Amino acid sequence: MHVALAGNPNAGKTSLFNALTGAHHKVGNYPGVTVEKREGIREYGDLSFRIVDLPGIYSLTAYSLDEVVARDFLLEQKPDIVVDVLDSTNLERNLYLCLQFQELGIPVVGALNMSDEAEAKGIHIDADILSKTLGIPLVKTVGTDGKGTEALLAAVKKASQSGSSGKMPAYGEEIEQCLAGLQNAIQVDVEFSTRYPSRWMAVKLLENDQNAIRKLGQSPRGESIRDQAEADRQWIRKHFGKESEIVITEQRYGYIHGARAEAVRKTPTKKVSPTEKIDRFLMNKYLGLPLFFLVIWGIFKLTFTIGAYPVSWLESGTTALSALVEQTIQPGLLQSFLINAIIGGVGSVLSFIPLIVILFLCISILEDTGYMSRAAFLTDHFLHAFGLHGQSFMPLMLGFGCSVPALMATRTLKSPKDRIATILAVPFMSCGAKLPVYVLLAGAFFPGNAANVVMAIYLAGVILSFLSTVFLRKTVLKGETTPFVMELPPYRMPTVRGIFWHVWEKTWQYMKKAGTVVLLASVVIWMFTTFPVPADGPHTDEYKLEYSLAGRIGKFVEPAIKPLGFNWKIGVALIPAFTAKELIVSTLGILYGAGGQGGAGGAESTAGLREALRADPTMNPLVALCMMVFVLVMPPCFASIATIKSEAGSKWAAFQVVYSLALAWLLAFLVRLVGSLFI
Ligand code: GDP
Ligand code: MG
Question: Is the domain of 133 the same as that of 236?
Fold first, then answer.
């Protein structure tokens, strides 16, 4: 049995999905978290439900990409049942979508979710009466603790056996006549009307839905149906004095209003809701933005001051480990391989895990409470000034974690130009993989000020993404931004489970990368730095390294990066950075430890690597700064570029690579130029 979970954004679909299937996908207290459909299985009695969690939508108009995804899924895959997850505190708007599901001709079961919040707000819904009025089964649920899921499954089972989609919403006599005529005309083509339910198609034609009109092309009778619909729309316009799509919308709301009046009772709650109280302070006209920046600054401070302790424990751990290897294994290739490739490469990347955990713990608390949506609101005005959009905020914020989900989250943006602009801005947000690079360089060359320098780089990325958007908006992406519409969810207590899974997911991703990509690349880089071994010549480490393949590659790219003050070792480290940014740290770890004494104090621990970097005469604070700028701006990792390609097309992916590489070089050069005036 194929079950689709659909409904408005933030209605609790993913929470219910997790409760039903035992999955733990990301739940967030703002719209647009789920951008892809996800599947899970739930056994129930003798039935097996294949449940799909769809992106949230407000309507089936196919204006935005998530509407297209959801609508195409329902039309093409034809699930056996749609479970419409309704936010009980916002019934009117949620039912608007429900009616459209009913018209699709697929049996609908309504989950009256957030029933706990509705009760708390004094909204009493009589599910039986509402169910009779709408003609669909309704079950009260609480997504966060799984209350009502058993009853929901029972209702799904029952509805699947009856196979009826309940009664259709009525549009009033005149429109029903038009619909009946159109339905008759559509049903003549049997094949077409099994693919697209005739009632749904007729309503969409009256709504002047371009996507549906195009679908008529699949029927030989399409042309005449289109003419008939056009005539009907004209008649409605004359008769009602407004466009037919507006009349249809009004009729739907009229129908919903009637249903609600029957079934919903509201006890007036005089007292100001906690959300309003908090918002008076946090969304204050003057205090709002400064508070937001204070919060962000606080997160950085927390991450680095508290995170410094566990990071240093892990560092001593890796140092101890390599000392152990040095004592127990003969000096030679095996020892160098273990110390430099394995402990040096992977260990240095792993020691940053505490920072990742703390940063994501803070971010997910902000997301789940609902503060992130406020931040989108607070910054909307500001973002518009740069040609971005309030809805760009979420993708940009997600970009601090990883560009891949951030790029996918741009699907909530309706206008293609706003969307491309956001896609091109996202990679300038420093992702989690860049953090270790900044921390290493700032720790080595700005020891007193490391946290501030890292924060300044993050901030520079934000500013750069804005300035870059202004530039692109004036050149390749000319056009106005569209207005911002987003609702603010109420503040909610984050659930421990939700936070835990979110942080775990991010940490696990990072660890997996360390164990796969980073490990593999470390081995390759170690081989590149070790072979070929020179037969004669001075047997110094430096000479061996220069003689190796890595040395030759580094020397080869050196002319291109010399103007930036980068030595050839940095050149070697920057090459794998196109695959993953963490590799810079592990590559430097290998390069600065390669062939060296190894053991405690060598470059295989990040503490040792900091020492080794400082000891290199070609390195200094300015070079480190230029390097941070270059890493900040340079093209994102392969996975992100592939995502840009699939989200925006290869043209924009190629543009992004060339543009950011050129910009990275230019900015690093400028920093060096300006910096050298002061040194
Ligand atoms: P989706 O966008 O429809 O997938 O919604 P989510 O599952 O991501 O949930 C949105 C927010 O509502 C999250 O903060 C959830 O913890 C919260 N939530 C979901 N269901 C309920 C519920 O029944 N009651 C309450 N109080 N909160 C809920
Ligand atoms: Mg979701």
Answer: no
How many beta carbons lie within 10 A of that of residue 291, not counting itself?
18
Tell whether 83 and 125 lie within a shared domain: yes
Q: Which of 234, 240, 226, 256 lies closest to 93 in space, CA to CA?
A: 256
Q: Which of these three, 266, 300, 325, is where a domain ends?
A: 266
Tokens coding 618: 């070609």
> Which of 5, 10, 90, 499 has most ligand 1 atoms within 8 Å of its beta carbon, as the pocket-test mutant?
10
Rounded to a whole number of angstroms, the distance between the first and last alpha carbons of the chain is 71
Looking at the structure, tell me whether residues 91 and 185 fall in a common domain: no
> What is the domain range of residue 195?
173-266
Calculate how far, in angstroms, residue 6's C-alpha sits from the geometric centre of ligand 2. 9
Identify which of 642, 647, 639 has the alpha carbon closest to the alpha carbon of residue 419. Answer: 647
198/144 same-domain check: no
> In this structure, what CATH number is given to the domain that contains residue 181?
1.10.287.1770
Question: Hunting for tokens 């997790």 — which residue is that?
Answer: 18
Per the listing, tokens 């480990």 go with 321
Q: Is the CB of 9 under 6 A from ligand 1?
A: yes
Centre of ligand 1 from the C-alpha of residue 197, in Å: 32
- Atom 2 of ligand 1, nearest CA residue: 10
Q: Is residue 617 part of a domain?
A: yes
Ligand 1 centroid–CA 145 distance in Å is 10
With residues binned 3-state (H G I as helix, E B as strand, rest as coil), the percentages for the chain, rounded to 5, are: 65, 5, 25
pLDDT tens digits for 269-325? 777 888 888 999 998 888 998 999 899 888 878 887 888 889 889 888 888 888 899
Residue 521 shares a structural domain with residue 667: yes
Token couple for 605: 């621990």
pLDDT of residue 256: 93
Q: Total structural domains in the chain?
A: 3
Nearest atom, ligand 1, residue 8 CA? 3
| CB of 103 closer than 8 Å to CB of 170 | no
pLDDT digits 0-9 by tens, 419-465 = 999 999 999 999 888 999 999 999 999 998 888 899 899 999 999 99
Q: Is 14 close to ligand 1, i.e. is its CB under 6 Å away? A: yes
**Would residue 300 count as lying in a domain?**
no
Closest residue CA from atom 19 of ligand 1: 12
Q: How far is CA 305 from CA 355, 607, 643, in A?
A: 10, 17, 34
492 within ligand 1 shell (Cβ under 6 A) = yes
Residue 333, in any domain of the structure: no
228-242, 287-301, 662-676: least confident range: 287-301
**b or e along 163-181 (b: 16 or more beta carbons within 10 Å of the residue's beta carbon)?**
eebbebbebeeebeebbee
Enter the DSSP assignment of 147. Answer: B
The answer to whether 604 and 344 have CB atoms below 8 angstroms apart is: yes
Pairing of strands 108-113, 138-140: parallel
Condensed to tens digits (0 to 9), the pLDDT of residues 562-579 reads 999 999 889 989 988 888
**Would the pTM of this model clear 0.70, i.e. be above it?**
yes
Mutate to test the pocket of ligand 1, among 94, 144, 411 (most ligand atoms within 8 A of CB): 144
Residues 83 and 228 in one domain: no
Q: Are residues 571 and 619 in the same domain?
A: yes
Q: List the CATH number of the domain containing 137.
A: 3.40.50.300
User: What is the bridge-based pairing of β-strands 123-125 and 264-266?
Assistant: antiparallel
Both 46 and 178 in one domain: the answer is: no
